Hints:
Strand content: under 5%
Structural class: mainly alpha
CATH class of the domain at 79-214: Mainly Alpha
Largest sheet: none
Order of helices and strands: HHHHHHHHHHHHHHHHHHH
Number of helices: 19
Low-confidence stretches: none
Radius of gyration: 26 Å
CATH topology of the domain at 79-214: Serine Threonine Protein Phosphatase 5, Tetratricopeptide repeat
CATH superfamily of the domain at 79-214: Tetratricopeptide repeat domain
Mean pLDDT: 87
CATH architecture of the domain at 79-214: Alpha Horseshoe
Amino acid sequence: xxxxxxxxxxxxxxxxxxxxxxxxxxxxxxxxxxxxxxxxxxxxxxxxxxxxxxxxxxxxxxxxxxxxxxxxxxxxxxxxxxxxxxxxxxxxxxxxxxxxxxxxxxxxxxxxxxxxxxxxxxxxxxxxxxxxxxxxxxxxxxxxxxxxxxxxxxxxxxxxxxxxxxxxxxxxxxxxxxxxxxxxxxxxxxxxxxxxxxxxxxxxxxxxxxxxxxxxxxxxxxxxxxxxxxxxxxxxxxxxxxxxxxxxxxxxxxxxxxxxxxxxxxxxxxxxxxxxxxxxxxxxxxxxxxxxxxxxxxxxxxxxxxxxxxxxxxxxxxxxxxxxxxxxxxxxxxxxxxxxxxxxxxxxxxxxxxxxxxxxxxxxxxxxxxxxxxxxxx
Length: 378
């Protein structure tokens, strides 16, 4: 409740009378019912709300914050725990940003390790009822960042966990009413749903994100992810419409960001054409040199190598396909990306490159041994 806009304004006043009036209005409580909640007489509540009585006693103020689920600092009665939490909030945005930089630079495991303690503390605070708007906004940002980071490092059979975290972030985004953050969260949740195999739901989220985006990078990113999801759904018309919009935006604006750039466009177009039964068109594109296009993040080089391998299989270039898959496998193992190894294994198997698939299976096992819980000695 304290995250509602009206409540946030009341909290900012640090005025107990204002806070109590807003609390009653939002919860549709009479002064009598509020008095019963706090253990006071109705007349006492009336005197506080009208300014005829001022409470300066720290113990009483602390009791009110506990009873109403108020953030303690709103009434100036912070203790050591509250001060520590306030400091965490101050640096929380930086933690999320640094984790995102780590993920995009190929260190997604480090990103998860940075985000998990922050998310755990925010979740615990929310359960206790202390969740004003600033805390809620940070919780939403941390949830979506954790979900995306988990979606980078988890194997395919566990990707639903990543989608759950981005889904929890979506609940916060809808609550906050911040259009930009909502569009971002819809994009990320849609992509994690796609990776977890819930492709129709992913398409629905990504179409919403495309409609909400109010800048070229945000819209281009949404169209990139929508193109991929439509391709995996086998919906050629929807894929063509999304990839065409993506191309038009790139022509109008310099590409920037992890997903809105020429390198990513080419990979998504290739994969979508193969998925919608147009492998010949994909072969034609892959034979055309790509000029001045580099991956925005290490994992995108891996993704592109797997996709190129699939196209080379369709073109009959088994040697080129095998080399593309092997390059992807080496990089995916080095960056600890199990589900990219799983993609490469499937693609190699479908191309009858069983030796390459066996190499991938061995790499996947090594990575699972590395990332799994340590063995307990007797």
